[in-house]
Amino acid sequence: MKRTVLRKYVDSKRGYFLCKRILDVLFATAIIITILSWLLPVLALLIKLTSKGPVFFLQKRTGRGGRSFTCYKLRTLVHNPLAHTKRLEISEEPITPLGRFLRQSNLDELPQFFNVLAGNMSIVGPRPHMHADCNAFAELIPGYKFRNLVKPGITGLAQVKGYHGKIMSRECIYKRFEWDARYVKSASMRLDIYIIYGTARKLVLFLLGKKPENQQSVPVAMGSNRQPVHQLVDESATLKKKTLKPVTVNR
């Protein structure tokens, strides 16, 4: 049933996903060659000099269609073998001084360009969750796994709108999903470019020590239709119903 829903969604945007994959590969390759080739060794050395443990943090995350993949990040916390399955409270997080900067600047996400090149992620899409978080959020919000119809991204519409970092409340979960669902419904190259521009702008302002201004509205084709979240996932629910056929049991 999940495969049928995913297939129908992909088929309806076949040209877009083909162009998106080509641009993902080209963009990720360019970033890896021009920036990561020298920046990652520098950051790796700083991490090793300031704290014990591995340079990279590898964690199983939920990908498109609910598939599992290994997400790459630079380690920002004191080494914790249980971090793959247990989410700590903010007050319990033993973050390193360098890790705090890497998180605030989002530089800890740089290794995910290798995930993009491998095809597990895209440049733009909903941020990937741990499986435990994905299941927990799905219990709180009906249709939450609707966001898994597309590949997870390094950046997304929710992040551009200011919803990034640790989840502080149920309302935060709801708002993130609202923006993720709007992205899935209206995914297009125009929207992807808007998100990439917004992400790059935020990074530049952070590095310059300036606070980002209020976000401008999203592209009209996507932002003008402000349905409630439960309506955003109606198409997914409808597709699922169509795949369910009555079963006749011979007695």
Average of per-residue pLDDT values: 81
* Strand residues, percent: 5-15%
Total E-strand runs: 4
Unreliable segments (pLDDT under 50, ≥5 consecutive)? 220-230, 235-251
Strand order of the largest sheet: 1-2
What does this structure look like?
- This protein is globular.
- The chain is mostly helical.
- Strand 1 and strand 2 form a beta hairpin.
- It is built from eleven helices and four strands; from the N terminus they run H-H-E-E-H-H-E-H-E-H-H-H-H-H-H.
- The chain starts with a helix and ends in an 8-residue tail after the last helix.
- The strands form two sheets. It has a two-stranded antiparallel sheet with strand order 1-2. A two-stranded parallel sheet has the order 3-4.
- Helices cover 53% and strands 8% of the residues.
Main traits of this protein?
two-stranded parallel ribbon, two-stranded antiparallel sheet, mainly alpha, globular, 251 residues
Task: Put the structure in a nutshell.
With 251 residues, this protein is mainly alpha-helical. 53% of the residues lie in helices and 8% in strands.
